[in-house]
Amino acid sequence: MDVRCLNCGEPWEVEHLRLYAFKETAHPHPESWNGHLTRKWRMYFAEAGYEFGSMMSIVKRCPCCPSENHEGLENLVRSADLMAEAVDYDEDAVDVEMNSFPEIFLG
């Protein structure tokens, strides 16, 4: 299933984000990835061009993004994080919602 970047609308396969994107980082021990977005992992993902909301399904920025942020990006991320909280951060439920969430706002 795809989720879309909230900044540019680029689709990302959830499986890629969770199982392979960590290999695109400069982390000295990528095998230590356990699926949790710690502050250190967020830093490595940011260096690779990825920024996430409260979960990996909430893609705030991706390597395909232009240098400027979408005008309403922070509001979109807050809305997506609230939606994730409303479903108790259930990955499957968030994935389904994020599949169409940006289209509502980005067109």
| Principal-axis shape | globular
Percentage of helical residues? 40-55%
Major sheet: arrangement of strands: 1-2
| Main sheet specs | 2 strands, antiparallel
Q: Regions with pLDDT < 50 over 5+ consecutive residues?
A: none
Instruction: State which percent range the strand residues make up.
Output: 5-15%
Structural class category: mainly alpha
Q: Compute the CA-based radius of gyration.
A: 13 Å
First and last CA, distance: 19 Å
Oligomer: single chain
Number of strands: 4
Q: Compute the average pLDDT.
A: 86
- Tally of separate domains: 1
Q: Output the number of helix runs.
A: 4
Which series of helices and strands comes N to C?
A: EEHHEEHH
Keywords:
globular, 107 residues, mainly alpha, 4 strands, two-stranded antiparallel ribbon, 4 helices
Question: How would you describe this protein?
Answer:
The chain has helices at residues 14-19, 39-47, 73-86, 91-106, and strands at residues 2-4, 11-13, 51-52, 59-61. It is mainly alpha-helical and 107 residues long. It has one domain (2-106). The chain has a two-stranded antiparallel sheet. The protein has a two-stranded antiparallel sheet with strand order 3-4. Strand 1 and strand 2 (11-13) form a beta hairpin. The model has no long low-confidence stretch (mean pLDDT 86).
